[in-house]
Amino acid sequence: MKNLTTKLAIGFAAISTFLRLLPTLLVWPFNLAPVGGLALFNGARLRSWMAYVLPLALMVVTDCILWALFGREYSPLHFSRPFVYGSFLVYVVLGRVLLSTTSSPLSIGGVAVLGSLQFYLLTNFAAWLELSRAALPTYTPDLPGLLHSLAAGLPFYDRSFPVGFLGFTILGDLAFTAAFFAVHAVATSTQPASQPLAEQLTR
Questions:
Q1: What is the CA radius of gyration of the chain?
Q2: Nearest-angstrom CA–CA distance, 104 and 110
Q3: Considering the domain boundaries, does residue 48 fall inside one?
Q4: Is 17 within a domain?
């Protein structure tokens, strides 16, 4: 069971590496990505240090590729990256604390949305810190500026972008989380039904 889960997690990470590049290369919303779902799955089902390392390695590798193609905004050394990388570690923790002993679709979906919200708050806070101190600031360096930054990511804030960054983050997290957990459930469905889930996951 443990070996199968590890193999699945590595396979999901490889697929996610490719899929994380597509939004930028094909110009669709970059928050519609699999990394949050991968990190949540890893936290819930992968019992090793790899749960934390796989999402971070994925981000560093893809950021380096995008950096070479599109410039310093994607550099792993960019101001925003500790916040972005840190948010994916939070996903892992949420999965480990809230989902490690459940297969409830409702619980998994709820925690996926919770992960989306913390990603939105952390990364928009980082955007406010950076852009309020720029030579030509986008936001003011005060509470109204922070609230403006947070509002900018909400659905319907911008009529030309009605789903908003938060909306696409939630959609991406729900879709990929559902896919990863579903594939894992099907792949491990041969486990004895009488075996408690917590015991199955730790063997």
A1: 18
A2: 10
A3: yes
A4: yes
Q: Where are the alpha helices (DSSP H) in 71-142?
A: 81-98, 105-131
DSSP single-letter state for residue 72: G
Pick from 177, 40, 188, 50: which is nearest to 100 by CA? 40
With a threshold of 0.70, does the pTM exceed it?
A: yes
Token pair belonging to 22: 């597509």
**Residues 2-41: pLDDT tens digits?**
789 999 999 999 999 999 888 767 666 667 889 999 999 9
Residues 97, 118 contacting (CB under 8 angstroms) = no
The reply to whether 112 falls in a domain is yes
Q: How far apart are CA 201 and CA 189, in angstroms?
A: 12
**Number of domains composing the chain:** 1
Cβ pair 88, 121 in contact under 8 A = no
Q: For residue 176, what are its two tokens?
A: 């990929």
Please indicate, yes or no, if residue 196 is contained in any of the structural domains: no
For residue 171, give both structure tokens: 């959609």
DSSP 74: G
Q: Do 87 and 51 touch, CB atoms closer than 8 A? A: no
